[in-house]
Structures are given as C-alpha cells and as structure tokens.
C-alpha cells in the first residue's frame, strides 16, 4: 500500500504502528554521515513557544545574554570535540534577526539525503520557522562542493496546523528506508505520509510517553538507530502492540537493541548520534550527562562499537530541552566540503 493514498484502513494500520510500503526506487544511502551541519547560536535562550510541548525544557534563572554566552561555549566545545574525533563540521552562524532562540537545533528544519535531496520541514513554534534558510543550502551547493538536486518543501503543512520536525520527529533508518516516529503535537500522520511518499520511506508510527504519562515531543529523545546498534527506551512506548512492532522491526533489520530506562531517557541518553570518522571508525556523539547515566555494560557495548565523544552541554539541555543529536544535521549529500 502506498503512503499518501489514505484509506481508512491505511490510517488505522499506521496508527497501530504497522509499516506501510512505498514502491519507489531511491539512491542507496549510508546510515552514518561523516559531516554535520551546526548552527552557531547568536541569540540563544529558553524558548517560551516550545515549553508547553517539551517536558525536558526548564526555565533558567539566567538572563538571555547569560544563556547565550554559556550556550556558545558549549557549542564550540562540541564542534571542537567532533573535529578532534575525525568528523567534518560545517559551522554557519545564526542571524540576529529574526530572533530564533532554538537555531542551535538545525536537524528539526532540514535533512540532507544521498540522492541530492534536501527536505524542509513544518515547525510548530512560529519563532522556529525563521530557522529555515535557503542561503545555507545554497552555500553547501555553491561554495562547499555538495550537490543539491532537489528541495522538497513540506513547510506548507504549517497552514493546516500539521507539523513534522525533521529528524527530531523521525528517527531514520536510512539503509532500510524506515522512519520511526512517535506521534505528538509536533509529529502529524499526514505529514509523515507526505514525507514517506516523496522519499520512499516506510513508517513505523507509535505513541510514547514519559514516566508521568506526558507525550514525548520528539522521537529522537527516546531512540537512536545506528549502523548496528539501536538504543531505545522501549518502556516509553505506550501500547504493547506498538512496542512489539518497533522492536521486531529493529531486530529484523539486524540491529542489536540496547534498552535504556526513564532515568537515562531524562538524561538524554536516547539523544545520541552515530557518525563515521574520516578513518572509517564509527563515532558515538552524546552529552556528558547522557554518557554518565549509562551503566558499565552499556558503556562497554558502545565503546566496543566505536569511538565515543562526550561533551557537557548542561545549559543547552536544561534551557532548550534538546541535546547533542538535536544540534547535528547530518550531511549525506553527494560531494565533499571543507569545514570552516
């Protein structure tokens, strides 16, 4: 059944977490990127427009200027650590206007794909929509040696109040073309269907809540899918049938599934990202808080799989409710770039 042909049966299956299949043929893509886009914050601060839907976000006592200063230090520390680990990092400065307090999280508005496609996404918060910048895409194409073949713009869904916040809303298994997505006010079924049809992805949709029963706002805070290792707080998936569907799909695609608990979820252990260094070694990037939350066996499993990069970004995590994975937009475009 092709996503986008929305019969009642199709919708009911999608709500139940059943995978829908698109028959298009797309360019084969690696799971791990070797280059990431990062946006250096200019006016970072806790965003009041996102607080209602993000239970991870808190209201700091620090002034906006102090939040910006701290976030900038944390940002530079992460960019430097990734480069030291062999990851190419393209850094582009945010613009002072319009004020986009969450611009440090570019993976919510854009994703880059191996066939040269760039996807732009609909954002729930109005002050986040200004993060979408065509000049960044033009720079990647014209100045940094990447090839952009097509831009798929899904932002028109904002007019209907429907959102899909990039690889925050979806955790992509790029090799097997599966999009895992927990439904929330920021992740809508119809936009998921639009993405899946255009990009030839299957969808595994489910409902997920935190320990207090509050819906989890983004899928990438509860799970990550790497080349061989998948990390997931499966107890957050509210329905048994959906939990089984997700775990079965991860196992069927050859992933070693590592479970994390609610304490680790709240420490952003689910918000890690696996990349590939220039020497071919996998790199697991996560915050220091996330790494510290893991048990000895969990750390050993990750260390056996690749190189680990951990950086303390406590203020970004507390103020904005996102972590390392959210700060990285993987560049899978054909071509190569020289980082700034």
Describe this structure in words.
The chain has 340 residues and is of the alpha/beta class. It has one domain: L-arginine/glycine Amidinotransferase, Chain A. It contains ten helices and 15 strands. The strands form five sheets. It has a three-stranded mixed beta sheet, with helices on one face. A three-stranded mixed beta sheet has the order 3-4-5, with no helix packed on it. A three-stranded mixed beta sheet has the order 6-7-8, sandwiched between helices. Helix 2 packs across helix 10.
**Uncertain ranges:** 1-25
Mean pLDDT: 90
Q: What is the percent of helical residues?
A: 25-40%
Total number of strands = 15
Give the CATH class. Answer: Alpha Beta
- CATH fold type: L-arginine/glycine Amidinotransferase, Chain A
- The CATH homology group name: L-arginine/glycine Amidinotransferase, Chain A
Main sheet makeup: 3 strands, mixed
Radius of gyration, in angstroms, nearest whole number: 18 Å
Q: Tell the overall outline.
A: globular
